[in-house]
Amino acid sequence: MKIMKKIIINKVIGAALIVLAAQACSESFTDLTPKGSVTSGNYWSTESDAVSAANGLYEHWGDDNMFGRGLFWFVNASDDMVTGRTDAGSAAARDFVATGNESRINSMYKKFYQIIQRANSILVNVPDMTINEEVKRRVLGEAYFMRAYAYFYLTQYYGDHRAGLPIVTEANMNEARFTRPAHVSENYQQMEQDLLTAAELLPLVTAYGANDLGRAHRDAAYAYLAKMYLHWARYDAGKWAEVVRYCDMVTSSGSGRALINTGNPQEDFASVFYVENNFSPEYIFSVVSNNVRGCILPAVLFENTGYGLYNGWGYFHPTLELYNHFEEGDYRKKATILEFGDTFTLFGEERQYYSSNSWTGFQFNKYMQPFRFPQEVHLNPNGDYPTSNLNVPLVRYADILLMKAEALIMQNQNADAPINQIRNRAGLPSITGATLADLKRERRSEFAAEYTDRHVDLVRWGDAQEAYSKPATGRQHANRDNPNSPYTVTEVWPARNFNPAIHHVWPIPPADITNSGISQNEGW
């Protein structure tokens, strides 16, 4: 598929963009393998055209430089992990000295705008199509949702009180130049409108058949409204009440949202990340993946070279600080992190964990279930493109509970109930009078190595500067090929200079600055 090389400031014919989307996806939503082609002259004629265009909104899920690992370079800035090999581009991002030119981080900005343009093309063309009304409503709902979804990540990483991101809708999508809003709240207002419209148009996930699971749905719209208001509340405390409102709407929507909690804390949290639970009641919105074309993140976290058995890439190693953070008796710890000597199953055989590659002596365990089975069960037979059929969550019901808890605490209300649901599932006792410190602890324990993104949490709480002023440490084992080898604690990444006036956002790639004529984020 030919990828646009310039950001949305190029004049792009909407139909041509949709040709790209249609080439990216087959008509079966869960089959992400590229199939077929169309021309702009014969498009926007049939229901199949509209559905195929909607499928194109999700094409980026199979893009290594998006949720495969691209955005994880930003997640990697947190104190939970370090880059697991010498890599100048990722180190520049983690050390907050990036220019935006680095290949690790220079493509996501424009790719989110590609999603926005695809959504705009749908919103221009689908309303006048003579197709099944139910399908039309869903496709339009998906377009409104995915436009807001793209802006959510753009504003999370690139916008603030000094400048938002160019707002591109169906009304101005063919303009050649754009400006940055004076404040990111203007983006939030647009996202709010889009998500509310999406919630009206989209069905509940329970209305979808097996082939449509993973599409945007009403609960996902409510969830991203809550997430958006959580960020907006940094600038307008009145938005905390909206966080609670939309979290409650997810809970009460009728779709049966709930934590996976069978009363077995040794297994319940771990099982959230099992293939068989890709679409469990805890699932809200995830990167849908399969073992032919999909998300490489699990393999990115797997042991580099995979002990000679499969191609792991060995990035993003847990820090000792994350390991030590967990409370005694928290079953999330073992579900999240492997340490030397831990017993685990690899390709059907039980073994003890060790690593000759881990910088910290640990590996993330959260997405490793596909590696328990023979390779052909869940993994791509092409080890050079190591995808699996495990979905990678973007929003879980646990996030709904903890966003609500945070919003209640910020309004001086009691948040014990949602926090204790999370704690009890992990095997921990209930607490009373939960504080913001309790909330912060639960978010770190619950979402390590997820796109919920601890770095973003630290930034919005104002905690990043202090957290990053300390070095990251790990365990240096005397014999890295011996699971029972003794270790010493060593510094694996030095303290970093985080300036909250600059580094709370990332640099917009310079090529996109040049193409669009917009201003760079201050200080970068």
TrEMBL record:
Keywords: Cell outer membrane, Membrane, Signal
Chief site of localization: membrane
GO cellular component: cell outer membrane
PROSITE patterns: PROKAR_LIPOPROTEIN
Official protein name in the record: Starch-binding associating with outer membrane
InterPro entries recorded: SusD-like_N, SusD_RagB_dom, TPR-like_helical_dom_sf
A Pfam family assignment: SusD_RagB
Segments forming domain RagB/SusD: 311-524
KW Membrane (keyword) present: yes
Keyword Metal-binding tagged: no
Residue stretches making up the SusD-like N-terminal domain: 93-230
Cellular location(s): Cell outer membrane
Signal peptide boundaries: 1-24
Similarity annotation: Belongs to the SusD family.
